[in-house]
């Protein structure tokens, strides 16, 4: 993987005919995706339904941004494997993931890239390089970029010393977040220290509780147990072929 050969993915980005009066939106999910699960994909479907029914945004693109190897999290497969698994996962297209793409930019860096810088990257590519998107009146307009995350991640934002205040102000103040409620995380508690940006944080309920996690998938794989229907079939096959998450 080389940044010299990097090209921002736009194959599923809706560049035109955006309804006038609507704010075009790009959602970015940052994470390890080690491996990617159906819950990661389900997050985009939940966000799609919520945004369509409760906001004035219209989704023009959604992205998975895997972390780089410098993140050094326990159980983190090499970046090139995680990128490939994410690409395999989005081949199972549905109506609500038609705009889903994998951006390898973050994972290509040898150094750790803070979430604030990752969102800046998307803002630059979509609004500066591409110049925004075109509405139904033929006029170009800027795209709102926002973070898509689980409430467990947002809970860490309220924990003292985990995130810098400057990064929080940049992420939640400039971009905002759409937060999927997850079992075991109290949203009020997760939002505890984030009241300053509460108008920029959208809480999305999980109507059908889903407790799939990459940690559980890795544990099952390590024990040579079945992981079918927890991750996409082609990802199951990739894990087996490359002997990932085994002792």
From TrEMBL:
SUPFAM superfamilies linked to this entry: Nucleotidylyl transferase
A GO CC term attached to the entry: mitochondrial matrix
Domain Cytidyltransferase-like positions: 28-218
UniProt pathway annotation: Cofactor biosynthesis; NAD(+) biosynthesis; NAD(+) from nicotinamide D-ribonucleotide: step 1/1
Known cofactor(s): Mg(2+)
Subcellular location as annotated: Mitochondrion
Known EC number: 2.7.7.1, 2.7.7.18
A single GO molecular function term of this UniProt record: nicotinamide-nucleotide adenylyltransferase activity
UniProt keyword terms in alphabetical order: ATP-binding, Mitochondrion, NAD, Nucleotide-binding, Nucleotidyltransferase, Pyridine nucleotide biosynthesis, Transferase
One record GO biological process: NAD+ biosynthetic process
InterPro entries: Cyt_trans-like, Euk_NMN_adenylyltrnsfrase, NadD/NMNAT, Rossmann-like_a/b/a_fold
Catalytic activity: beta-nicotinamide D-ribonucleotide + ATP + H(+) = diphosphate + NAD(+); nicotinate beta-D-ribonucleotide + ATP + H(+) = deamido-NAD(+) + diphosphate
Main location: mitochondrion
NCBIfam families xrefs: nicotinate (nicotinamide) nucleotide adenylyltransferase
Family note: Belongs to the eukaryotic NMN adenylyltransferase family.
Function noted in UniProt: Catalyzes the formation of NAD(+) from nicotinamide mononucleotide (NMN) and ATP. Can also use the deamidated form; nicotinic acid mononucleotide (NaMN) as substrate with the same efficiency. Can use triazofurin monophosphate (TrMP) as substrate. Can also use GTP and ITP as nucleotide donors. Also catalyzes the reverse reaction, i.e. the pyrophosphorolytic cleavage of NAD(+). For the pyrophosphorolytic activity, can use NAD(+), NADH, NaAD, nicotinic acid adenine dinucleotide phosphate (NHD), nicotinamide guanine dinucleotide (NGD) as substrates.
Subunit comment: Homotetramer.
Protein name from the UniProt record: Nicotinamide-nucleotide adenylyltransferase
Lineage, highest ranks first: Eukaryota, Fungi, Dikarya, Ascomycota, Pezizomycotina
């Amino acid at each position: 993987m080389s940044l010299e050969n990097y090209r921002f993915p736009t194959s599923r980005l809706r560049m035109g005919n955006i309804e006038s009066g609507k704010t075009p939106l790009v959602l970015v999910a940052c994470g390890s995706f080690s491996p990617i699960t159906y819950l990661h994909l389900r997050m985009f479907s939940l966000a799609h339904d919520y945004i369509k029914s409760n906001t004035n945004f219209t989704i023009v693109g959604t992205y998975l941004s895997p972390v780089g190897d410098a993140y050094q999290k326990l159980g983190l497969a090499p970046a090139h494997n995680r990128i490939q698994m994410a690409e395999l996962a989005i081949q199972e297209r549905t109506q609500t993931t038609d705009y889903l793409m994998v951006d390898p930019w973050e994972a290509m860096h040898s150094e750790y890239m803070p979430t604030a810088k990752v969102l800046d990257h998307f803002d630059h590519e979509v609004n500066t390089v591409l110049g925004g998107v075109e509405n139904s009146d033929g006029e170009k307009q800027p795209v709102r970029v926002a973070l898509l995350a689980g409430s467990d991640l947002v809970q860490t934002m309220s924990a003292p010393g985990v995130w810098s205040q400057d990064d929080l102000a940049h992420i939640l103040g400039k971009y905002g977040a759409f937060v999927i409620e997850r079992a075991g995380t109290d949203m009020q508690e997760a939002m505890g220290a984030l009241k300053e940006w509460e108008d920029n944080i959208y809480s999305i309920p999980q109507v059908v509780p889903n407790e799939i996690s990459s940690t559980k998938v890795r544990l099952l794989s390590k024990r040579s147990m079945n992981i079918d229907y927890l991750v996409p079939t082609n990802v199951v096959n990739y894990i087996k072929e490359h002997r990932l998450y085994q002792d």
